[in-house]
Design brief:
single chain, 868 residues, alpha/beta, Rossmann fold, Nucleotidyltransferase, domain 5, Taq DNA Polymerase, Chain T, domain 4, 4 domains, 6-stranded mixed sheet, 37 helices
């Protein structure tokens, strides 16, 4: 029947190509999925372009086929299938099953033979066939009814072969390709071909003799040398053709070719959710629009939307609240800590979604919620507080936050609400989902994520640290930090003058003016005009990144370029940008803390990012001077954990030497220096101590011999010896590191003091560099993440105490291991001991935790503050 198209997938071949195109793709548990992703992506691409009537996927059943019985050398040179690929074949078949695509495989035959048989059957019934493969062998199946789509490079580059294209490429017809391979050989299948006969000769012979058999019959008419070759190698040629010829008579069940019913939508989304294929899931829903309703069926699209526009209409909602454990609340996006409208959606389960609109309705609702002692579950509690606090919403009303819960369950995942719904509940939210849909999604996700938090033993971390921290951060964002616009603008002007002077000096050394901010022009000046030796090249020319320029810094022009870049970055990032971000209503900077933004659990900040203001150079310190107290009656108080990561290491490793050093209050860097340099503590020089400090923190960050050698500018052998001496002195540290790496390999993740979890798929990679990266991440996350647990718990406790005792002191910034407070001078003596003791006792440790306090009028000009 005209118009029927059969899509035939060479499953084994496509999977192999996809695997090498996307070799490192893994789930958070370390399950390799690159081949599955690439295979499915290729299938979707074909489905987008051609809508087949039927689909069949063929796979090799086993490595040994009838061809191996004919010739032991057949494909003998091919390497074994990589373990990471072998693991994925069943996953690919799971995807195909979910898509309702029949899978065919048969012992003793290759996928090619199954495809050849199906093509033969289909053509006899008038089907058009489309074969997708990465194997040239399939080209012999090309005919007026059959086309081959050949994957050439990975999964992105393809070539389409019809009869004319085969003839153009090989000089023979598709049916002659087995004869062609018998004569010219095929290295990929370990078919040697006949001596002295290459592709051109083979093509010419087949054009005049049609087939190998006819060529052998008329060999007497051939030149002597060619005749001799054919006589001597006749058996090899005949065997080679048998090996190259795709079978078309494999006994297969009759009903394999049948109209494709389309995918099983829920099953497909479930598989994609398990394999963490969110992008493919989106593509799937675009490819099959009818899937949208089914995929979101759990959201009850037909739910009754009950509008509440007057406070007196809340009575029926109050009855519902009394019967429910929680209500799911969704609200419009928040812009710069302010709600964009007085509107929210509330889901209490069942068939109803309440739509509350208007300031008075919201105020009445939150009074009702407080009276009933009700709790809400929401997405992004911090933003929720910013948006709804003006209407009476309070932190104690927040019972659950699906954003923070999803972040703890898998910190590396996309934490948009739609992504959370897909990963944890297997349904998709449309990109433009309305508030009622979002409220329903939050309602469904809440028990699922509660269960996962409990299963991963993260209830303390969630309910005692992360959830209450959202309210702490909301307060900090609302308060903001005072900055001196005058100081910043003055420094910006000064930097501008320095940059102008530096530019002229660089132009003079270069002998011409050029765009200093153009890597291409700078590369030309340095490496072509001035003849400096290039360190590395990129696709677009010479690399001029920082690592390259630092290696060439002995040249005056390069040294000046490095200074220019540093000053330009400070100017653009801070002195120019920060004044523009000052809120005119408050006169303060209001950063946004990203509570779910890092894999280690540390906080980050944005708009502006205040985490990376430099502290070691004079200009960075001058930028800090612009962060000031509110006025003459206030001071800034900095509370900074001392060597917290090393103390965490001592606690986790329980190394006696390391613990003893902290218990005795020794200088840990001097002690390490004495050990690795073999001198008494009195003989340790400042240079030795500085090197020991790098070693101490290098261990924390999982630094290799090479990494340490680069940092200290010494030979790798010497760096190796330093590390070995360190481990001889602190043997339990080495045992701890080995234990962490072993856990990461066994479980696929590491945990912190409070059971924060990070999945490290890199540690299971077959790539050595990726494995080593995974080992470094495992060590660093365990230590740095535990330090994050500590400071977050301290922030929650300090905030509770300051508020509970009615102090005006406010926590305004958190930067790594430091907390910054704005304190009325008359409160300083009272709040400083509270802050210090709370930081030092936030969590139980086996070694003393120390917080150093400093006080001053700005963030830079501070003096140590001793608590009596």
């Amino acid at each position: 029947m005209k118009g029927k198209t059969l899509l035939l997938l060479d499953g084994s071949s496509i999977a192999y190509r996809a695997f090498f195109a996307l070799p490192s793709l893994r789930t958070r548990t370390g399950l390799p999925t690159g081949a599955v992703y690439g295979f499915t992506s290729m299938l979707f691409k074909v489905l987008e372009e051609r809508r087949p009537t039927a689909i069949v996927a063929a796979f090799d059943k086993s490595k040994t086929t009838f061809r191996h019985a004919l010739a032991e050398t057949y494909k003998a040179h091919r390497p074994a299938t990589p373990d990471e690929l072998r693991q994925q074949f069943n996953l690919i078949k799971e995807v195909l099953t979910a898509l309702n695509v029949p899978v065919v495989e048969k012992e003793g035959f290759e996928a090619d033979d199954l495809i050849g048989t199906l093509v033969d059957r289909a053509e006899k019934e008038g089907w058009q066939c489309l074969i997708v493969t990465g194997d040239l062998d399939a080209l012999q199946l090309v005919s007026p009814l059959t086309t081959v789509v050949l994957m050439r490079k990975g999964i992105s580059e393809i070539a389409v072969f019809n009869e004319a294209e085969v003839k153009r490429r090989f000089g023979v017809t598709p049916r002659q390709l087995p004869d062609f391979k018998a004569l010219a050989g095929d290295a990929s299948d370990n078919i040697p071909g006949l001596p002295g006969i290459g592709p051109k000769t083979a093509s010419r012979l087949l054009q005049s003799h049609q087939s190998l058999e006819k060529l052998l019959e008329s060999k007497e008419s051939l030149p002597a040398k060619l005749r001799e070759t054919l006589e001597r190698h006749k058996e090899e040629a005949v065997l080679a053709k048998k090996l190259a010829l795709i079978r078309r008579d494999v006994p297969l069940e009759e009903e394999i070719i049948r109209p494709w019913p389309g995918p099983n939508i829920l099953a497909t989304l479930e598989v994609f959710s398990r394999l963490e294929f969110r992008t493919l899931a989106k593509r799937f829903l675009e490819l099959f629009p009818e899937a949208r309703l089914l995929s979101a069926s759990g959201l009850t699209p037909s739910a009754v939307r009950v509008k509440v526009e007057r406070p007196e209409e809340l009575e029926r909602l109050g009855e519902e609240l009394g019967r429910q454990e929680f209500a799911a609340l969704a609200y419009p996006p928040v812009l710069r800590r302010k709600a964009t409208s007085s509107f929210l959606a509330l889901c209490l389960g069942g068939e109803k979604v309440f739509l509350l609109e208007g300031p008075e309705v919201l105020k009445s609702f939150f009074r009702l919620l407080e009276e009933k002692g009700g709790l809400v579950s929401t997405y992004d509690a911090k933003s929720c507080l910013h948006a709804l606090e003006p209407y009476g919403f309070k932190p104690e009303m927040i019972g659950f936050d699906v954003l923070l819960a999803a972040y703890l369950v898998n910190p590396a995942a996309n934490n948009e609400l739609g992504a959370i719904a897909f990963e944890h509940a297997g349904f998709m939210l449309s990109p433009g989902a309305e508030l009622p849909e979002k409220a329903q999604a939050i309602y469904q996700l809440t028990p699922i994520l509660k269960s996962k938090i409990k299963l991963q033993e993260q209830e303390y971390l969630y309910y005692s640290v992360e959830l209450p921290l959202a309210a702490v951060l909301a307060d900090m964002e609302k308060v903001g930090v005072k900055v001196s616009e005058e100081r910043l603008r003055s420094l910006s002007k000064e930097l501008g003058e320095q940059l102008a002077q530096l530019s002229e000096e660089i132009y003079k050394l270069a002998g011409e003016r050029f765009n200093l901010n153009s890597p291409r022009q700078l590369g030309y000046i340095l490496f072509e005009k001035l003849g400096l030796k290039p360190v590395k090249k990129t696709k677009t020319g010479y690399s001029t990144d920082a690592s390259v320029l630092e290696k060439l810094a002995e040249h005056e022009i390069v040294a000046k370029v490095l200074v220019y870049r540093q000053l330009a970055k400070l100017k653009s990032t801070y002195t120019d940008a920060l004044p523009e971000l000052i809120d005119p209503a408050t006169g303060r900077l209001h950063t946004t803390f990203l509570q779910a933004g890092t894999a280690t659990g540390r906080l980050a900040s944005a708009e502006p990012n205040l985490q990376n203001i430099p502290v070691r150079d004079s200009l960075g310190r001058r930028i800090r001077q612009a962060f000031v107290a509110e006025g003459p009656d206030y001071v800034l108080l900095s509370a900074d954990y001392s060597q917290i990561e090393l103390r965490v290491l001592a606690h986790l490793s329980e190394d006696p030497g390391l613990c003893e050093a902290f218990v005795k209050g020794e200088d840990i860097h001097a002690r390490t220096a004495a050990e690795i340099f073999g001198v008494s503590p009195q003989e340790v020089t400042p240079e030795m101590r500085a090197k020991a400090k790098v070693v101490n923190f290098g261990i924390v960050y999982g630094m290799s011999d090479y990494g340490l050698s680069q940092e200290l500018k010494i030979e790798p052998g010497e760096a190796h010896e330093y590390i070995e001496r360190y481990f001889r002195r602190y043997p339990r540290v080495k045992q701890f590191i080995e234990r962490v790496i072993a856990q990461a390999r066994e479980k696929g993740y590491v945990t912190t003091i409070l059971n924060r979890r990070r999945y490290i798929p890199e540690i299971l990679s077959s790539n050595r560099n990726q494995r080593q990266l995974g080992e470094r991440l495992a060590i660093n996350t365990t230590i740095q993440g535990s330090a994050a647990d500590l400071i977050k718990k301290a922030m929650v406790d300090i905030h509770r105490q300051l508020k509970g005792q009615g102090f005006k002191c406010r926590m305004i910034l958190q930067v790594h291991d430091e907390l910054l407070f704005e304190v009325p001078k008359e409160e300083l003596e009272k709040v400083a001991p509270i802050i210090k003791s709370t930081m030092e006792q936030a969590l139980p440790f086996k070694v003393p935790i120390k917080a150093n306090l400093k006080v001053g009028p700005n963030w830079q000009d501070m003096e140590e503050y001793e608590v009596e």
